[in-house]
Amino acid sequence: MEDKKKILYSGMQATGNLTLGNYLGALRNWKTLNEEYDCFFGVMDLHSLTVRQNPAEFRQRARNLFALYVAAGLDPEKNCIYFQSHVSTHAELSWILNCYTYIGELNRMTQFKDKASRHSDNINAGLYTYPVLMAADILLYQADVVPVGKDQLQHLEITRDIAQRFNGIYGDVFTIPEPYTGKIGAGVKSLQNPEKKMSKSDENPNASIYLMDDADTIRRKFRRAVTDSDTQVRYDVTEKPGISNLMDIYSAVTGKDMKEIEAEFSGVGYGDFKSAVGEAVAGLLSPMQERFEEIKNDKEYLDKVISANDEKAFYFSNKTLRKVKKKVGLTDRIR
Ligand code: TYM
Description:
Blueprint (H helix, E strand, L loop, with lengths): L5 E8 L6 H14 L3 E8 H4 L6 H17 L8 E4 L5 H10 L4 H5 L2 H9 L6 H16 L4 E3 L5 H18 L7 E3 L34 H9 L17 H14 L3 H7 L5 H27 L2 H30 L7
Parallel strand pairs: 1-2, 2-3, 4-5
Ligand 1 binds next to strand 1, helix 1 and helix 7.
């Protein structure tokens, strides 16, 4: 990697089935920004432990997520793609940063409140300190930019606050990261309830397009998407949230703006428009799906790049961790 480029950091949890929201809100932007930055992408498997996982399925899902990053076009020779749990610096820095994070700050996190209400039988401490581990992920790599969907902006804000607080005490240890949301990062909404974000944890499978849905399933889900009783394809988030969501998706996939889309479907019913969105999304996802099928079982290749990238991530992040330990006054190990 060249030294001069700025650093980009991001990742996804290895939880559930990834959706079109994850793709358009995050993964695709990673690919777009790839050349411009030195990139680190984590398979955030420690974060996934905040909800109960079936161990065998979880292991497979985490490997598949790694393969999916590669299938989406991230080159593991040029980018550092790695498993969060393989790099011990994350858990270590997370502990230290816990001691620089206030309970009052964590109490304000809307994602915690939301998850706590959905998993009321398992409101564990990990769920509560989730944002601190996320701050550690980002700050370890001295990231300049973090491409995420809008739902993660509050976590970016607390990351910046923790970093600034730490720097205020010890000098410039951490780079203060900027979020990057891109256009659709504002959020892909559920196809069944356009007031909600499209989410991998939605109980209704028709609400989300999963990245591994086949073309027929994708077409069917778009045909069934909840819209309104009007017939005009017009962008109006308040009055027509369902159609506006489909227009956002169509725009993100085709690059057309809202005026062009309105013109393209003027005088045509919702049915034709929904079919066009389904076609466009199926066409977008199918090359990635094919590549994923090729890569996911290539154990030798995956093991090789995983091992090399784990090393790289450890080497890089440990530089920051060592500095932090020194600053806070932890003693050195005697070798
Ligand atoms: P996760 O796995 O929940 O989400 C992964 C990414 O997908 C984005 N996203 C969406 N964007 C637009 N519309 C949607 N409907 C939608 N649903 C999800 C999320 O904003 C996210 O960018 N906490 C992170 C994982 C993480 C992380 C990090 C990210 C852990 N450490 C450090 C960046 C840097 C998360 O929410 O993942």
